[in-house]
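Problem 3 from the worked examples.
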Amino acid sequence: MMRGLWSFCAIAVCCAATVGARAQAQQSEPASAIPWLTDSLQSPPELPGKTNTTFGLGIEPISVEPLRETGRDGLGILSPDLTGFPANLWPQMTPEEVAELIERTPYGGVPAVRSLFRQVLLAQTDTPSGGKADDYLLLARIDRLLKIGALSEAQALIELVGPDTSALFRRWFDIGLLTNNADLACTELETSPMLSPARSVQVFCLALGRDWDAAATSLALGEELGQIPPQEADLLGFFLDESLLEEIDPPPVSSPLTSLEFVIRESVGLPRPNTRLPIAFLHAELAEYVPLRFRVEASEQLVREGVLPAAVLFAAYREEKPAASGGVWERLAATQGMDQAATAEEISAALHKLDKEMRRSGLRMAAAEEFLLYLSELPADQFEPDVRDIAALYFLLAQAPEKAELWMSQTAPNPLKTALSVAAGRFDQGTEIEEVLSTTTPEARLSPFQEKLIAQRRTGEAILAAITLLARDDADQDDLLEALALLRATGQEQAAHKVAVQTLLLPLSPGNAN
């Protein structure tokens, strides 16, 4: 065990220092809390009315009041003016019921569907009534964002209210770990001891601040007192001194793997689990010191999930010349080929290659966003119909239908023509999609239950019902039409049009819904 490697002297010094036994009220959390969240910051529950008492040398017992507000479940970073949602998004529902509905709604479908779901999670709304636990819905929304890998959005939601409870801080600390910003959370701990971290987090923060002696001392005491499990102590020992890897076998990978363990294992080069990592862990691959291939692969997956701007991916594509052929290197070459093309002939060949690679890898939407301005500056009349139609498709995906109309050829395929008809609001191709988007009575296509949701103004439930139809792996044309009608009935006209256009032009992105 690692314990034998730490000196008796270090333990003795530790025992002469303060031994904390803080017990802070444990906040109720939604059942959707995901298992890989750093559980090391959780505190034992405290009975109501008890004080938090710290025993130590020269330290008086202190009483800690919870610094929490009530009614924060409706706070969000997107106002009703931005989302188009009514303020009373969840009538007749408690926070617990909304949290359960959010958890069971799948995350999938074309980018517009994923974007709409994230808007629901980030929306500013009236606080649902009847909840029994503070921040219950807020935590459920944050957990769902973490589960789908939307770390920046989750961080923005936490920082809107402030990481002022153990539950919120724990999630904020996880985000910091996975985005190489844990030093901010460690600094916060120094000034906010009421957040009561476990000993393992204290050791990590001390090591991060390069206070190696204090970290080693804290680790020795934590292991001696049973505050740090042996396997976690071994990992922290490797984190402090990688040479110990030559003396002891590394511990096996925990299941589930916490973000703290993941970051430590990565930092000392220990093997990863054979199972698929949570999508949020891929953010750790974006650090500059990670080899380009792994950074690109992580960026591609995060862009497909809709939780990373396309510009980040294309910056990586342009960082250096392809080191090999095949896989990600083909997409580097295709992107750089577009940048270097000068003549109409070169641009035509480069655009064909780019679209082939992006379509095959589920990144067509990202390419459309990245090359919108580039294509906008080209003269359409210098290109053949096949190239013009690729450009028109990109313009439609990038919400520039006026440009698409200038570029689209007379021989364009029907889905492209229908997508232009929808995007331009003409609805002149006579398809079922156009019919459901143009009718003045979209409710006619709804089921009795869906009609009831609309009649009772249960907008949030209706939007999530539409998302569920669109995000299913086995969604068909009837599901699409029903969902479009439901979105229109909730006032989400723009979202319905985006979903229709993208469904016509994009295959579903690879990977399963989260």
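Problem 4, a separate protein:
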Amino acid sequence: MPKAKYTEEDIKTLEWREHIRLRPGMYIGKRGDGSAPDDGIYVLLKEVIDNCIDEFVMGHGKTIDVKLDGESISVRDYGRGIPLGKLMDCAAKINTGAKYDSEAFQKSVGLNGVGIKAVNALSETFEIQAFREGKTKSISFSQAEVINEMQRARSSKASDGTFLSFIPDESIFNDFKWREEFIDNMLWNYAYLNSGLTLKFNGKKYKAKEGLKELLEKNITEEPIYPVAHLIGQDIEVALTHSASQYGEEYYSFVNGQHTTQGGTHQAAFREAVVKTVRDHFKKQFDPADVRQSVVGAISVKVQEPVFESQTKTKLGSTHTAPKDGKPIRSWIVGFVQDQLDNYLHRNPEASKAMLEKIQRAEKERKDLKGIRKIAKDRAKKAKIHNKKLRDCRIHYGDRNKLANESTLFITEGDSASGSITTARDVDTQAVFSLRGKPLNTFGLSKKVVYENEEFNLLQHALNIEDGIEQLRYNNVVLATDADVDGMHIRLLLITFFLQFFPEMIREGHLYILETPLFRVRNKQKQFYCYNNQERLDAIEVCGKGAEITRFKGLGEISPSEFKEFIGDGIRLDPVILDRNKSESEMLQFYMGKNTPDRQNFIIDNLKIEMDPVEETEEVA
């Protein structure tokens, strides 16, 4: 094979907008289509709102308006407004901003002047308008190219502040769709972290008075066993409690208002501090897993010049709070939590007693499971050698690889479906776990069943979530079942399993349902895959008379060559999202418990019947 030449012509310098569009992942993480809370379109929105929050923190503007209209989203703050003469620089000149001077923006998240420019470069339309001291100026862009600019400032009676609207670029975010529940969650987090701030989203108000305490009280899925411990200090706020029966740990962590969904230095220090404080307070060397089982906690810190592990700022890498004192974040947080949580437990003996009893129950359960866990681990080790259920991939979540966030595990029913997906999958990032028949209904059962049931035990080992989801091997866990009654039932049983024992998998946006086409409509020139009856009717209209229509009754009927289209770039995933208005125990009881009349009435009231228009394959006359 001839060697490629390497000359001056191979060296290229890209304009800033070209670089952002060529390598969007460096700026926004994964692109996505809006079906996951960390998809790029929400990162774009967050970059815009972060600037508004910085204004509020500096004492300017107490309201932020967010409006969603189809694909377009707009944000209006009432801060000081961008200086009119610098509007173009702030929107379209890389490394331009006010945050390099730490006296102007103390403890801000955005420090590199990239955020708004990335929004501009990755948007089909982008408009920015500043209102300042009775005057206004605006500029409109498309893919960061100016399409309309107000050359001179005009007089305005509007309040000072900045207005920005954008539509994400369809060529970057294929078939994207905004999900209001993700925006809702984002805005609530901003409200919890900024007491006195009011956010509005399409008329709905978001305002919180008690910070992280209110966050836990509104998000905890069941009544906590003791009142939330709310600890506040200089540049640090912590909230903590234990839930009654949920498994695992649940944390919300923030740095300078940024939701660090992957944790980092501060969250690790918080977890360590809780264990250390509990051991010292009760004078017993509890196992850390027993202390942290069912913990629900939140921590927010403010630091100067935070160092994040990526531009998307989801994990804190800083080890120091500020250059001026050089105090390590770990010792600062551990010291604060030790003092304040110990004081709380001394002042609240009932809470202390409830916490101790909870830890002791966790300890007893762990010891009771010790024997069966050993048997299950041995069984899992043997299965690893010849595990016919798992067809693994090469790249996993957490690997130092640019494709790590794309790692996906498809959970399928039966050999036919798993065979098609296995043949069609990307072996680098897509793995397949095959179920045999319907899984057990785990509602109301203890975690002992996870170890006794071979399939569930092998599944938790495949995911590597036995001791929590910190070492989760796949970012996306996808339920790939048939769209019939049996497939729906299997899907429900699997959701019950995760909700019962690993709810953080759902809370942190790792669980999805695979959408696959119900019909194929084609003629000699064109072919369409349709996911519902309306798409089928539209396709028939395009293909005309003589169109052949095939109804897919199961995943196994879709050939591997066809499956490539449905699990590749055009994959449609529906996220499993928890209803904020119901606790996990309430949802499990309703859908999987013995409440037959209530469930029957629900089904009758919500039943939709779509007549099957075709049988197997037929032609339109």
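Solution to problem 4. The chain is about 35% helix and 20% strand. The two ends are 56 Å apart (CA to CA).
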